[in-house]
Amino acid sequence: MATRKEHSQTALITGATSNIGYELAKYFAKKGNNLVLVARDQHVLYKICDEIEDEFGIYASALTLDFALPTSPNEIFSELTRASIQVDILVNNPEFDNSGLINKTSLEYELKTTQANLVNLTHLTKFLLPSMLKHKFGKILNIMTAGSFTPDPSNAVYCVTKEYIQSFSEALENELKSTNINVMVLCPDEDFFKKTNILTKIRKFSINR
Questions:
Q1: Strand partners, 182
Q2: What count of other Cβ atoms lies within 10 Å of the Cβ of residue 66?
Q3: Rounded CA gap, 36 and 131, in Å?
Q4: Are 33 and 53 in contact (CB under 8 A)?
Q5: Measuring CA to CA, which of 7, 17, 156, 179 is 20 to 30 A from 108?
Q6: How many C-beta neighbours within 10 Å does residue 2 have?
Q7: Rounded CA gap, 103 and 97, in Å?
Q8: In the CATH scheme, what is the code of domain 10-200?
Q9: DSSP states of 4-63 as a string?
Q10: Backbone angles phi and psi of 175, in degrees to 5
């Protein structure tokens, strides 16, 4: 296991075991950041942490939990406090979806979608922002989708939560414009699995103000 680089920044990424979360984890590791990776599948999560540590020589912490549960932000914050980890970069990448007509989809899963994509995203941001302000540095990257712009009749709940992410991010960026906290939203296109595409989209985000 790699040793935590004490003078490196730390990025916390939710939904880190697949697709864009996984690619972003590798991206920030390549930049020399330590990582805190959050996901539900413990086996995959630990495998990815080991893989990234071996490849990039940084320290990757694994937090196995279901981000759709109301207790998740508290559990994450408690673990960060226990381990004395200062999060400099927060990547909110909650991915809960429940496609289908509203009268046929699962209410339980739609409530989980709302909890993860809206409530817990806000909760975790509010937990970590005060420390960023105290240290006069921080970056918040929120992941949205094309559904943020156009309601999808077969994906009503998911789209409205992603629309919230866009609005919340724009408002937060405006609130923090006089600080050294950078807020950005990333709306991946159909090629978002390709790391080169992600690098292009977040290049501006990666440059300190």
A1: 139
A2: 15
A3: 16
A4: no
A5: 17
A6: 16
A7: 15
A8: 3.40.50.720
A9: P-TTS-EEEEESTTSHHHHHHHHHHHHTT-EEEEEES-HHHHHHHHHHHHHHH---EEEE
A10: -60, -35
Task: Note whether 67 and 91 are within 8 A (CB).
Answer: no
Tokens of 141: 């990257």
Q: What angle do CA 162, 91, 169 make, to 5 degrees?
A: 45
Whether the CB-CB separation of 66 and 40 falls below 8 Å is answered with yes
> pTM for the whole thing?
0.86
Q: Determine the length of the chain.
A: 209
What number of other Cβ atoms are within 10 A of residue 194's Cβ?
A: 13
Please write the tens of the pLDDT for every residue from 116-134: 999 999 999 999 999 999 9
Q: Is residue 23 a contact partner of residue 198, using CB atoms and an 8 Å limit?
A: yes
